[in-house]
Design a protein that fits this description.
This protein is of the alpha+beta class and about 425 residues long. The chain has 10 helices and 4 strands; from the N terminus they run H-H-H-E-H-E-H-H-H-E-H-E-H-H.
Amino acid sequence: MKAAVISLLFPCIPVSLSPCILSLRAQTLEECQQAAERNYPLIQRMDLIRQTTHLTVQNIQKGWLPQVSATAQTTYQSDVTAFPEQIQTVYQQLGIDIKGLRKDQYRVGIEVQQIVFDGGTIKHQKEVARQQGSVEEAQNEVNIYNVRQRVNEMYFALLLLDDQIQLKRDLQDLLSGNEKKLVSMRDKGTAAESDYLSVKAERLNVVQQMTSLESQRQTVVRMLSVFCGMDITQAERPSLNQTGEGHNNRPELKAFDTQIRLADAQVKMLNAALMPKLGVFAQGFYGYPGLNMFEDMMQRQWSLGGVIGTRLSWNIGALYTRKNDKAKLQLARQTAENGREVFLFNNHLEQIQQRERIERYRRLMADDEEIISLRSKVRKAAESKLAHGIIDVNDLLRDINAENAARLQQSMHEIEMLKEIYNQKYTTNN
């Protein structure tokens, strides 16, 4: 029976038992699932993703604000603008000395640019950022949803251990009763000392098994309590009159949808990158030469200058990679759609297997009650035969263990069916 418990526990043993346990009580499986999802550290990542997305969108929105840049430059030119030699000669004859522009030039300035029309680039950048956040949130929801399966494993392991402990307790009581009868029979000389010792040894063996099961139960309770962040002392057995069938609401489907929407948003941003951009700008600077070159040729002094205007730009370089970029995004979309089809296909197969297993356990349980009834009658008959000296104690112990095994088998069938029902609920998220 220990192997059956291990098989139920297998996937769900957490590494750390350190989180704080609240003094609450959760008895139903649904309460444990909800508590575990709230307690699982990944839940904190949802808020972090939302905050990051919000900040990213805010930064993109600031693209509409005036963009201010400051520049300072110094240059030395191999040649500068100058009057022809004949004109300089005329000015010199008139007593006017034209020094001409210097080859070393300096400028310190500020430029302010304001976008007027960006072809929808900022709008689609914000949408892409939101969709990227949605993809991360959806994937995080998938990871959080997986917590339910781990809770299910531990919860049904606890139910099975409770049943096993109760059956062992009943078996111990039954053996104790027969042990007392054999003491009386031994004292009357109708039973041998070895008969009494055999039953006592069997009872002590059951006590050992109970000790082991109770230790396993304590471990499972501790793990489940830490996992859920609650003090869980008793698991409530779910009703058998439940079904996990229904529309598929798994979070993985939402994750695939967000990936498709992200690819669509990226295509729109790709289209916006081809649109022309219109903006206004203003430049102010202090340096040499200024905008009045004639005056700068004569005086060579630093001066203030400014320019305002509109600027239309159209970067057609995006055309070079546009075809490949669109093809990559289309492939990303097809990959997400294929992933959804694969998931639904495998999910459907899993549902078929779970329905078959549930039906199999229903058929097995239909005979469990009758088997137990028959085993119980055989055991009672064996007790009567032993009292009359017809059989020995080994035959009685065999019949007692056979009845206990039948009861344990019924318990395992019921819990395994409950586990399959909730696995089906997990498979469809219903």
